[in-house]
């Protein structure tokens, strides 16, 4: 019963698993498709964006296929347990969602274009699930790295909410929060990184609503 509860209820910091001081596994050095470092250092001029849109296997592929994206990696974000494992996140006892970190060149692909891809690649009205994948780790989320990103994310949400409602969908449940020290990104295990490149026929739970997100609804300079 406790396991079931935490698949539909975010734990408080007191309820969350204790975690550990250091990561319990190694992370590969380089992206298997793009060839660039996963954990950095990243070249000057690049920016970071963090998104949660369901199972991170298919979500990561959406972003690495985008021109102007320098590297991607999957991990856990928005929870309480330091350095969690996949099994711990899936238990619901850490509070994390499955996330994709996108390192991109804003001169090639603006943040607003990544937001459009994010919104259109999943159903952001489903709460603690995405399609058949149920649990708090599948919730929709945007973790922002600057005030400009935050404003752009909220503006795009408001614009997309309008067209989704017109199309018969419920309200957007996406959490939009700063990617600050209280919400660190913890890289996932090596076998999750670029999973669908290593397993081309593997599971991909990503599927959008079919409703187009308005373009140019926000500015993300700075």
Automatic annotation (TrEMBL):
Keyword annotations from UniProtKB, A to Z: Oxidoreductase
Database matches in SUPFAM superfamilies: Peptide methionine sulfoxide reductase
Pfam families in the record: PMSR (PF01625)
Keyword Coiled coil (UniProt): no
Catalytic activity: [thioredoxin]-disulfide + L-methionine + H2O = L-methionine (S)-S-oxide + [thioredoxin]-dithiol; L-methionyl-[protein] + [thioredoxin]-disulfide + H2O = L-methionyl-(S)-S-oxide-[protein] + [thioredoxin]-dithiol
Domain Peptide methionine sulphoxide reductase MsrA: 50-204
Enzyme class: oxidoreductase
Active site: 55
E.C. code: 1.8.4.11
GO molecular function: peptide-methionine (S)-S-oxide reductase activity
Family designation: Belongs to the MsrA Met sulfoxide reductase family.
Function: Has an important function as a repair enzyme for proteins that have been inactivated by oxidation. Catalyzes the reversible oxidation-reduction of methionine sulfoxide in proteins to methionine.
HAMAP family assigned to the protein according to its UniProt record, in alphabetical order: MsrA (MF_01401)
Protein name per Swiss-Prot or TrEMBL: Peptide methionine sulfoxide reductase MsrA
Name of the gene this protein is made from: msrA
